[in-house]
Amino acid sequence: MTRLSVNLNKVALLRNSRSLGIPGVTWAARIVLEAGAHGITVHPRPDARHIRSVDVHELAQLLKASPDAEFNIEGNPFEPPLLELARAVRPQQCTLVPDDPGAFTSDHGWDLARDGARLQPMVAELKKLGIRVSLFMDPLPEMMAGAAAIGAQRVELYTEPYACAFGTADESAMVERYAAAARSARAAGLGVNAGHDLNRDNLPRFLAAVPGVAEVSIGHALIADALEWGLAATVRDYLRVMGAAR
């Protein structure tokens, strides 16, 4: 079954709007893990507008009590604080994302022709620390061999284009585009993750059509749903629809 990693950035964003320390990021992590989520994702950015470095350290400590759960830290390795945090807490996975420092959200995958040579030593360092490395990639089958060549172990397929096409005349063609990228990644020896704008409605079709998705990372939609149904119930419902898709 595909594993669900819950992105807690939006919990941190709400907390940071006041100085009261609520809602707590580790509080939310406990709830989603107890509800059955397989891991926690955070994406600290240089401006600390949501996840802060202290959150990463506290979550790493919390996850020591859940050895089957994985900690995934996302970010741009060319900007602080990603590599510093990875060296300090040794998460199970680092997802390297080509965000500009002021980016509103992640909106494209790596251009390996431009950045591959710079990424390679960082990938090697993270792997030496025992951290699985995933590269955030557009669904381009021809790019997957390049990701494997610089040492990545997984790719995370950037799924906003799929989410935008869902329910439109372009849906079937877009699904096949992702399926082809996943097949190419697996042929290159890479594991396949996916994330960005996945939700309860579009997730089943994606998982049914795209082969071998090991993990989905979901934050914005899941936290939005939790405002209506509660955090634990929402996690359980996402796990239900993921199970049904398989």
Which CATH-level-2 architecture?
Alpha-Beta Barrel
Structural class: alpha/beta
Unreliable segments of 5+ consecutive residues: none
**Strand count, sense and closure of the main sheet?**
8 strands, parallel, barrel
| DSSP summary: helix tally | 11
Q: Tally the structural domains.
A: 1
Q: Give the percentage of residues in beta strands.
A: 15-25%
How many E-type strands?
Answer: 8
Rg over C-alpha atoms, rounded to the nearest angstrom: 17 Å
Overall shape: it is globular
Helix content: 40-55%
Report on the structure:
This protein has about 250 residues and is α/β, with parallel strands linked by helices. The chain has 11 helices and 8 strands. The protein has a single domain, classed as TIM Barrel (Alpha-Beta Barrel), CATH 3.20.20.70. Helix content is about 45%, strand content about 15%. Helix 2 packs parallel to helix 3, helix 9 packs parallel to helix 11 and helix 10 packs across helix 11.
Write the layout of secondary structure elements.
Layout: E1 3-7, H1 9-15, H2 25-34, E2 39-42, H3 53-63, E3 70-75, H4 82-89, E4 93-96, H5 112-128, E5 132-137, H6 144-149, E6 154-158, H7 160-165, H8 171-187, E7 191-195, H9 203-209, E8 213-218, H10 220-229, H11 231-245
Parallel strand pairs: 1-2, 1-8, 2-3, 3-4, 4-5, 5-6, 6-7, 7-8
Helix pairs in contact: 2-3, 9-11, 10-11
